Structure formats: structure tokens, C-alpha cells
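ok so for the tutorial part 2 we go from a plain amino acid sequence to predicted C-alpha cells. step 1 is just haveing the sequence, like this:
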Amino acid sequence: MNGFLISLEGGEGAGKTTVLNALRDCLDQHGFEVVTTREPGGTAAGEMIRQVLLNPELKLFSETELLLMFAARAQLVRELIQPSMARGAAVISDRFTDASFAYQGGGRGLEMGRIAELERWAAVIKPNLTFLLDVSVQQGLERARSRGGEPDRIEREREDFFERVRTTYLSRAKNEPDRFIVIDASQSPEEVVLKVKEKLDVWLQKWIEK
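step 2 — the prediction. this is what the C-alpha cells look like for a chain of 210 residues:
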């Protein structure tokens, strides 16, 4: 069986880490080799790029931010994701290309067509399944702040930035209903995980039957 890529998307405080851990355990129980990763990062080069991208002391132009995101992504796809999928593994990524459409496209206002070009050239692949954890900006930011620590460069953006991010995510989910599953992430972590597992089981059955 060919491997597949599942991505987790959502704004700040959506609970992606909790869901990623639940997905990993669920897929492991189904007998899959499971590889987890994150964006930006996931490789030695990608993690170094991540430090630049999230450094609050740096002023990066939107175009610089976009290109750095895709540089890290190109490395991740070729070094980790494609080889893992080639041997039949299930790959779970905390964010993938939809994040660039949402953050650099919706949030920063960069041209969506340019991002799509980079997706085709640098990322090469799309996720087979994307869980969008949707939560209001206010609730998500409250959750993120409750974790403590200094906010990174992107977390310091204004609420209207994150509203545009959320709107773009929801628009992409509406336009690609076969790939996206939208989960109400305002619920308790237990409720979110239960719903995600239910949806994953249905999707896996269809995947196995292909």
C-alpha cells in the first residue's frame, strides 16, 4: 500500500499538538508506520530556517517570509515526506502548504497565484487528507497566551491578521471538500479527539479499499 500525508491546519491555539498525538496513536493501532513532522522545520535545515522565521527580533518582508517557508518545505518534502510515503508510511504534518495560503496569502496579502506556483514547484505534493481545526480567533489566542512564554514573531500579529487567516482556511476547506475535514476546535480536547478519530476511521476505510 502506498503511504499518505495527513496535514493538520488551524490558527493559534487550535490544539494541533493534541490532535497530532491522537492521530499518531490511532494510525499506529491500525498497523501503519507513522512519521510525524512539523512546519516550518522537520529537518536540520528546516529547523534552522524556523528559528529565523519565528525570531521576534527580525523584521522580515512578506516575500522573504513566504520564500523561507517554501525553502523549509522543499527540504522537508524531499528529505522526509516523500521517502517515508514511498515505503508505505503514514506521515502526519503539523501544517503544510495550506498554511502559506492562509498566513502569507490571507494574512499578509500576498498573491495566491504566486503561492500556488511555489506549491507546484517547491512542495510538489498535496496532503491526501487535511484536518482543519477551526476555533474563533479570540478563543484561540486566549489558549495560546495561557501556555505562557514569549510570543514568537508571527504570534505577535494583530487579531485582524488572524481573522484573515481563519477566513482563508475556511474558504480553502469549502473549495476542497474531498480533502478537508473541518473540526469544531472550540470543544474540549476530548471531544475534538473523538471527532477526529471518527472521521479518520471513515477516511482510512476508503483509502484501504482503493
